[in-house]
Each structure stands twice: as C-alpha cells, then as structure tokens.
Amino acid sequence: MRYEILATGSDANCTVIERQIAVDMGVPWYKVAPYAKDLALVLLTHTHGDHFNKATVRRMAKNRPSLRWACGPWMVGPLLSNGVDRRCIDVLRMDEWQSYGRLGILVCAIETRHDVPNCAWCIWRDERDSIFYATDTGTLDGIEAKGYGTYLVEANYRDAELQQRIAEKMDAGGFAYETRAAETHLSWEQATEWLQENMAEWSLWVPMHEHKDKGGYQDGLVRSAPDAG
Question: For the residues 101-110, what does the mean pLDDT come to?
C-alpha cells in the first residue's frame, strides 16, 4: 500500500494511505487539506492533541460532512463535540475485522497500552498489500500481526540512552520527562524484538516517533529491516 507520512512525533501525527485513508488527524488543516477531497475513511487512535487536532477535525467535518470515521468508543464523544455527524462514526469492537468494500480493505483495531485509551490499526487488502500501524504504546506484548507488507511502528528511544538521560537529570536535581516515555512509548529494542517475531521476509519497517537527544520528539524516519544492534 502506498502511504504518505504527513507528520509523526509529539507535535503532530497523520499518515495518509492510498490518498483515501488517514490514520489519525493530529496535523494542522493546511497539512491535510491537499488530501481532504479524496479521503473516504479516517482511523483514529486516541484523544491526545498530537493525534486528534480539534480544529482540523471540525474543519474536516464541515468540508466533508459524509466522511467516515472509525474508532474505539473513547473517541465518540470528542468526534461529536467537534461537529462529526454520529451517522458517520463507525465504533469498532476491538480485535474484530470491519470490511470497507468500497475501498477494498479490511480494518481491525487492537487495544494498546498508553496513558489514555488507545489502539493500533491493521489495514489489510492482501498479504503484501497491508499495513500495521502502532504508536504511543508502552508494549506490544500479546499482540500478533504476522506477515504484513508494511509496519509503521514506533521506535521512540534506545534503552541505554534514555536511562543515561534520566540518571543525568535526576543527579542534577531536575525532572526527567523521559520517565514517561519509558512507560508509554516503545523503545527501539522492544520494537525490533516484536518485529522480528512478526515480519515476513518481504516486510518493510518504518520506525515512527524516533526520539532525538535535543529535547522533545522529532521526526526521524529510517526505513529498515529490524536490527536490535
């Protein structure tokens, strides 16, 4: 599947697939506007502003009133309060596939662990024409997604580097925001271990939400096979 990552990181998140499907809507309007008329489905993960930009959702609801939104039950209230028609919201049960025949795809939401309710998304057309998307989660333990064509999975930090930053800040008497990252985001090591168990030889991994050691989260996409080294 063709995909375009409009943004990934702590500031904004949105990935457009085949110009018809968006995963998350956390970007300013100008970022998604070129795709708005072609979108048929938006898949949402959770309520944090970098994944759910209220102003953009309101504008999308106004400009595209019949656009379909798929989500877990925790997203219904925020969607309604930002102008989305209830008839356009598909509330999916976790771990159950939903067919979107017009798009020729199946989608499935899988609940993941974060500091608010959250989910990963499976988007399937066929074995190689498929995407598994997971960000903002402390673990993928217990989740199986074997043989997808593309894995858009976060690799937020390296364990050793994060622990060193935490220790330095604690020794200096400061607050180490990195402790939250360790609880709510996947490390490179966690991601690669899980990917090695799930990827096929033809699969592609795109590391999302890579953390840079200059404060905050920055985009840093590196297309690669899993390598824990």
Answer: 97
Task: Output the furthest CA–CA distance in the chain (Å, rounded).
Answer: 57
Question: Which residues, including other chains, have CB under 8 Å from residue 154's CB and lie 6 or more apart?
Answer: 134, 135, 136, 137, 185, 186, 191, 207, 208, 209, 210
pLDDT of residue 176: 45
Question: Which pTM does this prediction carry?
Answer: 0.88
**Nearest 10 degrees: Cα torsion 172, 173, 177, 181:** 70
pLDDT tens per residue, range 206-218: 999 865 443 333 3
159: left (phi over 0), alpha (psi -120 to 50) or beta: alpha
Domains of the chain and CATH, by start: 3-208 (3.60.15.10)
Question: What proportions of the chain, in percent to the nearest 5, are helix, strand and coil?
Answer: 25, 30, 45
Sheet arrangement for strand 105-112:
97-100, 105-112, 118-124, 130-134, 150-154, 204-208
